[in-house]
Amino acid sequence: MASSETDSACPGVEEGESFVKLCVLEGFSESSETKALISSLPEAHGDLVTSERTTEKFLVILDGYQEQPHLLDPHLEWMVNMLLEIVRSDTSPPSLVHLSFKFLYIICKVRGYKIFMQLLPHEVADVQPVLDLLSRQDPKDSETWETRYMLLLWLSMTCLIPFDLCRLDGHLKSEGGKAKDSTMDRILTIAKSYLLVADSPRDAASVLVSKFMTRPDVKQKRLGDFLDWSLTTITQTNDGLLRDIVMLDGALQSLAKLFKHGKRDDLLQYAPTIMQCVEQKHLSESSQAMLRKHGVKLTQRLGLTFLKPRLAAWRYQRGNRSLAANLSASQSGAAPSPEVEIQELEEDYDIPEEVETVIEYLLVGLKDKETIVRWSAAKGIGRVTGRLPKELADEVVGSVLDCFSFQETDNAWHGGCLALAELGRRGLLLPSRLADGT
């Protein structure tokens, strides 16, 4: 009786417990159902209604793990292998192949492409089949864009093979009097063409560029030409036209990823020219939020290229997480290590002039009207500041604090908060500055 009275007095208890159970999953419980859905694809692909119903069921199951995608990890390999087996089969008709790639895209969307890509096979034997299959696709077919997206990611992974691509060409026999293009040229042509499309494969093409152009054999022969092509695209486009917006988006996105994954020694010579081109484009004044975001992303990557990769010796050290270790260290009065002293002596190095332009660009980005731009600018401020000497870094913190003025908008205050949070997370917000922020 007491139990029932308690339950009736607290009607929200059971609802709250069930809500927690719904939100926090313990594992992937639909494994057998998922396996059955994938196995049914050869029968379902021929009928439009059946294929759509099967896809919807699969989508509902996977979308339930958007908040906890890591729960899929123990099951990703067999799901991907089952679908790729269908794709690779010579007996699979095109409709079945496209449906399988649609399922692969759903998995990729939920888990994230960075994790998902690692599951795609990338042996030497995979390069030509993937390249040939991608070459046969119609970039204008709006019904099969998932196929092109996944093939571009798959091609990105095959670019990681450690052999020179010219070994895959053998003897380039001519077809109809014309010599066949090399594998390197074919991949580059496909990457460029998909950077200019208006749908999601453009994003996958930028990933392909970042993997392909950073290969030792490719960067030696094609990097300069690709960067010239990108700069020409940026210079000749007008963000007032839809087609030009798409082209500009693809060029900026690919350059940002290229400078993220490429080696500093390879890209440093090109950075000033690209920085000048971006500056002249006035992307921060564009009406397109995505262009402003990509402009911020590219600018911060250029800034990191100008600066030597180093960990700031002056950053705030939180000390030991163990209370006992903290107390013993304070009692012993341990002196700073020689390595730290050497790092502090090395802080006096020349900072390129372009870094000031980069920081000013990012500070403007903190005041942008779109959150995605402000967030990207804040992360850029944190990354660049971490490579600066203490005095210059303190000036950056002071500039961020200027966002908290009553003359500034709510956007500037929010951007300033994001930047301070990023600086604090990286240990770049020193205790001496804390009083200024109160």
From TrEMBL:
One BP term from GO: adherens junction assembly
PANTHER family: BETA-TUBULIN COFACTOR D, TUBULIN-SPECIFIC CHAPERONE D
Ranges for domain Tubulin-folding cofactor D ARM repeats: 291-435
Alphabetical list of Pfam families matching this protein: ARM_TBCD (PF23579), ARM_TBCD_2nd (PF25767)
Any Gene Ontology CC annotation: lateral plasma membrane
Protein name, as recorded: Tubulin-folding cofactor D ARM repeats domain-containing protein
GO molecular function terms attached to this record: beta-tubulin binding; GTPase activator activity
